[in-house]
Amino acid sequence: MSDNSHILHPTKTGNSVKDNPADNTLLVTGRKKRILLASLFSNFFVLLALYCGVISVLLPNHIAQIDPANKANNLAIVMTSALLFTIFAQPIAGALSDRCRSTWGRRSPWIVGGALIGGLAIFGISMTTTVAGIAVFWLMAAISLNCMNGPLATVVADRFLPENRGIASGFVGAGSTAGGTVGIIIAGYLAWNLQLGYLVFGLAIVTCCIAFVLINREPSTRTLEVEPFRWGTFFKSFWVSPRHYPDFGWAFFGRFAMFLGYQGVVTYQLYILQDYIGLSVKDANYAIGTISLITLVTLLFSGLVSGYLSDKFQRRKIFVFASSILMAAGLVIPLLVPTLNGMYYYAAILGLGYGAYTSIDMALMTQVLPGGGKQAGKDMGILTIATVLPQSFSPVLSAWMLSTFNNDYSTLFIAAIIFVFASSFFVLPIKSVK
Hints:
Number of helices: 16
Organism: Silvania hatchlandensis
Order of helices and strands: EEHHHHHHHHHHHHHHHH
Largest sheet: 2 strands, antiparallel
Helix content: over 70%
Domain Major facilitator superfamily (MFS) profile: 35-434
Number of strands: 2
CATH superfamily: MFS general substrate transporter like domains
Protein name: MFS transporter
Transmembrane segments: 35-59, 75-96, 108-125, 131-155, 167-190, 196-215, 252-272, 284-306, 318-337, 343-360, 381-403, 409-428
Distance between the termini: 34 Å
Shape: globular
Region (Disordered): 1-20
CATH architecture: Up-down Bundle
CATH class: Mainly Alpha
């Protein structure tokens, strides 16, 4: 069997794509395509349910129980302590998965291994009663889950032709955003029993990833040739010059700005409901579930519809641009209406924008990879830094802003609006994608 990286840059004739089915052994069609789409939806659903449920609800509640007076600063410490170790986890795992030769293919060993270790580490968090202990177990979980997430995301580039990646990205985006919403809802109702909450999310990610690789079996790569490993070449490959690959650079910085703004509000959403809206701890945990449910409905609709329309018209940029503007508009609402109803309106508008953004952004990313995607695992991993870095950095920025502006949570919305609005303009200079 030959290397399948060439499937990422087929020859184009007009609006059609010519490919040799005999060579493209990873491509899926018909029933296998439908199963893979459903599997991607399920896996990203569970993964983001874990991330959002743990980050937005379980960790904030856990940390607040340990030290209520310093909860915001301690949450920032826990979230950022993993930064230096996890920022490069996905690109390194992606690069190693490109070179992986096994009976189960290139991506599957990383998907299963990362899920197993990550799931155990998530449950380990429940066993500790110190902020330091939480930070250590979260570091282990973050590294492992990032090593799983990178190869999993690369499946879109591996198995779908460019003209079909809008719908594939739509399923991934819908699964991610729906999972994040449901994860917050479930975590909100399990906040009374943190150990059970951590256990539910840890078991779910392990079960889902094992099922994924069994149902969507990769061909063996044991007989494929692999270039000799050289440390210098390996580490040099992680630098992608914005001058030589400007579209890749614009896509990276656009995603970075959007997630920096988005995560700054979402990470502190529980505290926003308590200290900005004025709810009790109990009411805030229930309200965060209602907010997430509203977001779920709007994002599922916008995510799947946007993915379908993007493929139909073969346009990516206009959808990413418009969705970013819509998200910025949603973030304005709590500033004008700082009430629980205002948060509900914010959730509905933000869901429409975020669902559309995530459904199209991945499709756009797969089409700006250097060299047509010959090192898709590594390059997709580099692009995920634009997601991971803001997730780690935004709590620090948010904690600094709250400290500087006398715990005024409105400053978080203002900063988020600026970053999300700015992100919409980074997509405009991209030339290789319409």
